[in-house]
Amino acid sequence: MAAAAAMLELPFVCDEQLTRCMRLRFQSLQQKNVRPQDGEKLLRPNEYVYRVDFIRQHNLRFLRWDIRLEGPGKVTVTGTSQHWTPDLTHLMNRQLLEPVGIFWKKPGAKEVECNEADAQEFGERVAELARIRKVMYFLLAFTDGLEPAQLKGSIVFKA
Question: What residues form the membrane-spanning segments (predicted)?
């Protein structure tokens, strides 16, 4: 029981309002026939904003990603360096963190695969950023037929 108490699993939560707000920014630019700012990241139709709320910020050690995909496809998880802000509509490309986490499931496969080295480094970076944040935003891009409803994901830390 003590081992279970030392684990902290923080789920990815789709921020539908922020995703909608960023899509409106894109539509507004199109309607006004205006170019985005240099380096501005506009949300593509297959990208959604997710957030992770840190209920604990200190002494977290990254253990693993818990990404479950109900069907085949790929999801790319990109963290943002934005500090606490409810508005990412003017998100700049330079605010996107590297490496990214890429998770995929092949047709007929039971397990989700990933590039483990990048996923490990990314998870460790998230643990470092948790010290200065109560919330962290992520852009999730769904490809190869995968949809947001087919994803259940979280980050697991040792607390």
Answer: none
DSSP 80: B
The closest alpha carbon to 93, from 155, 20, 44, 127, belongs to 44
Angle made by CA atoms 91, 68, 51, in degrees to the nearest 5: 25
Q: Looking at the DSSP assignment, which residues form a beta bridge with residue 67?
A: 153
> Quick one: DSSP state of residue 92?
B
Cα 55–chain centre separation: 17
**32-91 residue pLDDT tens:** 998 998 999 999 999 999 999 998 888 899 999 999 999 999 999 999 987 766 667 788
Q: Between the CA of residue 148 and those of 78, 83, 132, what are the distances in Å?
A: 15, 24, 28
Residues 6+ apart with CB under 8 A from 68: 112, 151, 152, 153
Task: Render pLDDT for 127-140 as a digit per residue (tens, 0 to 9).
Answer: 999 988 889 999 99
Q: Which fold has domain 7-33+40-158?
A: Jelly Rolls (2.60.120)
Task: Please report, for the chain, the start and end positions of each structural domain, with discontinuous segments joined by +.
Answer: 7-33+40-158
Give the predicted TM-score (pTM) of the model: 0.91
What's the sign of the alpha-carbon dihedral 111, 116, 120, 126? Answer: negative
Q: How far apart are CA 15 and CA 89, in angstroms?
A: 13
